[in-house]
Amino acid sequence: MSSVTNAARTLFLRSFKLQRAGITYRHFNGLAKTISKRPAVAAQIRLVSTETATKNEEDYHSIIKDTEKPVGESSKHEFQAETRMLLDIVARSLYSEKEVFVRELISNASDALEKFRYLTVSENETEKKIVDKDRPLEIHISTDKHNRTLTIQDTGIGMTKDDLISNLGVIAKSGSKAFLEQLKAKEGAADSSIIGQFGVGFYSAFMVADRVDVYSRAVGEEQGYKWTSDGTGTYEIQPAEGVQPGTKIVIHLKSDCREFADDETIKNIINKYSNFVGSPLYLNGKKANIVQPLWLADPKTVTVQQHNDFYRFISGSYDVPRYVLHYKTDVPLSIRALLYFPEGKPGLFEMSRETESGVALYTKKILIKNRTDNILPKWLRFVKGVVDSEDIPLNLSRELLQNSTLINKLRGVLAGRVVKFLQDQMKKNAEEYEKFYKDYGIFIKEGIITNHNQLEKEDSANLLLFESSHQEAGKKVNLTDYIARNNENRTIFYLAAPSRTLAESSPYYESLKSKKQEVLFCYEPYDELVLMQLQQFKGYKLVSVEKDMRDDKAANDLSNLGEDSLKRSEVNELSSWLKDKLSGKVATVNATTRLENHPCVVTVEEMAAARHFIRTQSHGLPEDRRYAILQPQFEINPRHPIIKKLYKLMSSDQQLAELLAKQVNVSQMIIDIFGTHIHAHSGAIIRFYLPYSSIL
């Protein structure tokens, strides 16, 4: 073939990949004849094709070659009885997706390389002599659509004939497991990092294979072997020549599994499951695992740019992380975690509890599950990242992920560490944390409401932020700040209102204000519900000011009302009359001395629960049913002009008095119980009582 023909063929094959489209030599020869008549074009093609060929040859690297040749007699063996019974279980039950067999075989290859690495640092002189320390430790994969095969080869420790029988003939007695036991016997377990259960992973290949051929040559051995089986009841072993050190697995795919002989399919599987194996991984001669397992690096050595790139890689986002938690521990579990807190605000999709977790679970750099819902509590579903634990078995099923004691322990450790991390961020930079809390505080509140462990709830509760009556508007404090200033009555008071203006003008607040008692203001709808669920914090009771007023028996002492007030007998008379006229709308009517500027107030047993009921469950209920559930208590201020005028109208104008009583009660119900829904300005409460001014 002429140089022009070669140039045309190289150009089209390497630059445009037309071979897949069925381009033949006839096409190239015809093209070559046309190009040869135009020297300038031919020269340009030679230049381009030479550069392309040189570059591709430099990038291409593969150890997979058809050099193996079986020689001598083969020996036939039967699988162990348990293996025959378990083969079907492994294929059907352990793995829900067929593609994971690629992950399993890559994991096994990584095992073999780890074993070889261990031998290179072994103190055993015999082992040292047989190890070629200059051997590159690599994993290679090739696909062949035409022959419908997938080949995976490693340069690891390899297997002898006995190893092939014990490792591949018995499903629960793996080479890795036996090897680890040998290391433990030498007290060298701490120096190894080997993924167990080699046999289980290997047999996952039979989910997609008609036949599996294994060529292996153990380190230090001259003789190689071929192991072959169709996955039914027997396998054969035969000596083989031309076997490279390590192990080569050739999978002859079933006709309905031909997609696993496709380059792009395998590339996607590698990216999904095995991007972070510890050795170079090549697919059809090209480096496949180009992203490094950043979570295993020393946190001090990782740059901001590396974190940004890795965050975008695992999350599919285009922003940068707001916070980065790079965490490792060996007690009580081996954990390597890299967690990212997004910079952007959560959308409606992220707010839904149906949203999947953004954290992937690995064991020794091998993916178990990409989005693992149970690895962090549900409220942390906005967190993105990776958790790698050597204590997690590779074949952990979906059911075990949901119910495993090990997973529960892992979730508890991680959740506690995340809470501590956020507490640290609050201390380091309160302004930045406030921005985070504004965007993601709803998730923290969800975590407290849904958690049944009081200690964990209190840890999370310290992440909550509130405005305080003792701080200027806009300044936020947490519960720890509050108790540091109020350590006498061991009570944390809080008040729900849509704004500071409404909170400070609330009838509930005015009595505590006169006592100079600090009160936390809850502006968000679920704040008071969270504190009601929490009940206490570090030994301090959490009490709403509404409940404090309702339970304050001293406020009902009318012995010192003063001259500007109704007399006790008049108060009793008016209270009885009001209870009669407001029948069905109030449970009781009492006088209180806690009010100064307000004529009355309505209290219920649990105001937070009442407001939540009004918001979510009261629609469609008859009015009398609502009042029966709420059991409101109507408390009047005997010193207020409206209440004193009401008493006079009882005798002079019964009809007007009854109208006024009902109107005052309805207005106060709106202010006190429905008030958290009324986003009004400072004159809102005053305007409720303007219609009564003409009566006074």
From TrEMBL:
Family to which this protein belongs: Belongs to the heat shock protein 90 family.
Positions of the Histidine kinase/HSP90-like ATPase domain: 97-257
InterPro entries assigned to the protein according to its UniProt record, in alphabetical order: HATPase_C_sf, HATPase_dom, HSP90_C, Hsp90_fam, Hsp90_N, Ribosomal_Su5_D2-typ_SF
Lineage, highest ranks first: Eukaryota, Metazoa, Ecdysozoa, Arthropoda, Hexapoda
UniProt KW keywords: ATP-binding, Chaperone, Nucleotide-binding
Record-given protein name: Heat shock protein 83
Any one Pfam family match given in the protein's UniProt record, by short name: HSP90
Binding-site positions, ATP: 104, 108, 154, 159, 167, 173-175, 197-202, 247, 398
Source organism, top-level taxon: Eukaryota
GO molecular function: ATP binding; ATP hydrolysis activity; ATP-dependent protein folding chaperone; unfolded protein binding
CDD domains found in the cross-reference section: HATPase_Hsp90-like
